[in-house]
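In the design runs reported in the main text, the only information available to the sequence generator was the tokenized backbone. The following block is the verbatim input for one such run; it is reproduced so that readers can re-run the procedure and compare outputs position by position.
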């Protein structure tokens, strides 16, 4: 067994490019009966049909996909799946959108090596971009805070009665629960404001 071409197509339920992917697979030499089409919503990444297809494949078979993101939702998953297919299962992978990601050519060394290097490079670029985005977000938040922009839930303004009840609570003549009930807030909020008040008066 082996050397059979299988095509895996994953589209969102709203996606209309299913026909284009089928055509691209057929142009490459994948027969319609060897194609699996998985439809799912954008937020989900369940791949039961993909798993069934891979389980059916034999060493030497070729898995054809349109783009590398069909293998996972991030590059960590993609790298894991790539290693599983090419190293553990000895299945060749062809990515139509990226001809360098083709482990059929010179499978003994060159093709697989080049594909692995390209995939590692893509993973590095994607991870670096994620880190850059996080850094830009952190810098943006820091700059906004300097300008006086506040994040999170808006602080509940305390009525004048708070100071009176806080004093009674501090003297031990009123419980935090009763004080909070009179102010219409939770006991946790009342105690947090007491701590804030104490830290400001130190």
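Verbatim output:
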């Amino acid at each position: 067994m082996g050397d059979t071409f299988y095509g895996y197509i994953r589209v969102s339920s709203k996606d209309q490019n299913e026909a284009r992917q089928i055509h691209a697979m057929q142009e490459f030499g994948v027969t319609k009966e060897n194609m699996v089409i998985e439809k799912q919503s954008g937020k989900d990444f369940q791949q039961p049909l993909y798993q069934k297809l891979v389980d059916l494949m034999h060493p030497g078979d070729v898995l054809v996909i349109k783009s590398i993101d069909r293998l996972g939702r991030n590059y960590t998953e993609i790298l894991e799946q790539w290693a599983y297919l090419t190293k553990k299962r000895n299945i060749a992978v062809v990515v139509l959108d990226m001809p360098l990601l083709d482990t059929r050519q010179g499978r003994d060394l060159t093709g697989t090596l080049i594909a692995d290097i390209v995939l590692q490079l893509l993973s590095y670029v994607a991870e670096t971009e994620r880190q850059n985005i996080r850094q830009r977000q952190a810098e943006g938040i820091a700059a906004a805070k300097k300008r006086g922009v506040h994040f999170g839930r808006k602080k509940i303004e305390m009525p004048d009665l708070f100071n009176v009840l806080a004093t009674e609570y501090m003297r031990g003549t009123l419980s935090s629960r009763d004080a909070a009930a009179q102010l219409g807030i939770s006991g946790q909020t009342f105690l947090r404001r007491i701590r804030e008040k104490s830290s400001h008066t130190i």
